[in-house]
Amino acid sequence: MNPYDPMEIVTQKIERFGILNDENREKNRPMFKGISMFVRSIWPSADQESIVLGTQFFIFSRIFDDLIDSNEPEFGIKLINRAINIFTLGKLEDDPKPYEKNIFDLVQNLQLRVGDQHPLMNLFRIAFLDCFDNLIPWQNMKKLNGDMSMNLYYILRRHNIGTAPTVFLGLMFIVKRLNYEIFLDPLLKCLWDQGGRISALYNDVLSYEKEVRENDVRMNSFHFMKTQNNWSDQECLEFFEKEMDKCFEQYFIHENLIIQKFIPTLQNKEDQEEFYQIIGFFHKLISSLLMMYLKKPNYKSPDSIFVELRN
Ligand SMILES: [Mg+2]
To answer: Which regions in the chain score pLDDT beneath 70?
Structure first.
C-alpha cells in the first residue's frame, strides 16, 4: 500500500465508515474508480488532501442521491433532515449511517482547513442545503403528469445537477490569495448556472437510453422534447445542438464580463493567475463531466442511437 496515494487514503476511510466492505467491494469498484478519475481531472494540480476530500464529496453525493431516489418521500425527508443537521449544526446522529460519517468527516476536515466561518465554507454549506431542498420536489415532479417546458426544467435541474457545491468546494481548494468577496458577485452565479445547464443537457442526451431502459425518463429533456413535439431522434439532436449553442454563448459572455470586471482590479500577476485558474477550473468541470458521461458503462449499449455510446 502506498500511503501517499489519495485513492488508498479514501479507500481506508470509507472502509472505516462502513461504506465499503467485502460484500460490495467488487460492485462498487467501477463507481469509486470513475469518481477518482473525475476528481483528478477537474483538480489536476490539487494537493493530496484536496483529492481525498473531493473524492469523499462525490461519493457522498452519489450515495445520497441514489438513496433518495430509491426510497419513499417520507423516509427521504428523514434522511435529508439528518443530513441538514450535519451541515447547519455540525451534528452527527447517535446512530450514524456510513455515508453520514463520510460527509461529517468531510465537513469537519474542511472546517479545520479553512475555518468554520470562512465565507466559501458557508457558501458550500448553503449550496448543499439548496440541493437537499430540491430533492423531494424533483421526485414529486417525476410522478406528475403534464408537459414539462425547458424553462421549468432548467429551474428544477439547477440544484439537481449539483454544480454549486462543487464550485465552492473547488474554490476552497484553489483560492489562496484572492479576496473572497469576488465570489459573491452574481456574475459568477450566472457562470455556473450556464455551466450546470450545459452539463445537464449533455447528461440528458447521453443518459437518455439508460433512463428509457430503467423507465426513469420523465425528467429527461431529450425525452420530453421528443415526445411532446413528436420529433425524430435527429430533430431532437438538432434542437439540443441549438440549445447548447445558446448556453455556451451565454457562458462565454458571462466569462468575459467577469474577466473584464475583475482582472483590472487585481494588482499583481499572482492574483491574476489565480483568477484564471478558477476560470480554467470551470472549463475542466464541464469537459470532465462530458468525458465521464461518455465513458459510463451503464450509458452504453450495442445498438445505441448515439454512435459514441455503442459498445
Ligand atoms: Mg440523467
So the answer is: 1
- Ligand 1 centroid vs 73 CA: distance in angstroms? 20
Please say whether the dihedral angle defined by the alpha carbons of residues 110, 193, 38 and 128, taken in this order, is positive or negative. Answer: positive
308 CA to centre of ligand 1 in angstroms: 16
Judgement on whether residues 59 and 150 belong to the same structural domain of the protein? no
Domain count for the chain, please give it: 2
Domain, as residue range, for 303: 146-162+171-311
d(CA 28, CA 98): 15
Residues, CB within 5 angstroms of ligand 1 (ion): 203, 207
Task: Render pLDDT for 169-197 as a digit per residue (tens, 0 to 9).
Answer: 999 999 999 999 899 999 999 999 999 99
Q: Global pTM? A: 0.95
Contact 280, 262 (CB under 8 A): no
Instruction: At 266, list the grid cell.
Output: 487585481
Residue 2 in 3-state DSSP?
coil
- Local structure of 310: helix, strand or coil: strand
Residue 2 pLDDT: 80
Helical segments of the chain, H only: 6-17, 25-42, 48-69, 73-88, 98-114, 119-143, 150-160, 163-174, 186-213, 221-229, 233-262, 269-295
Task: Compute the distance from residue 113 Cα to the ligand 1 centre, in Å.
Answer: 34
Q: What is the pLDDT of residue 4?
A: 83
* Structural domain contains residue 138: no
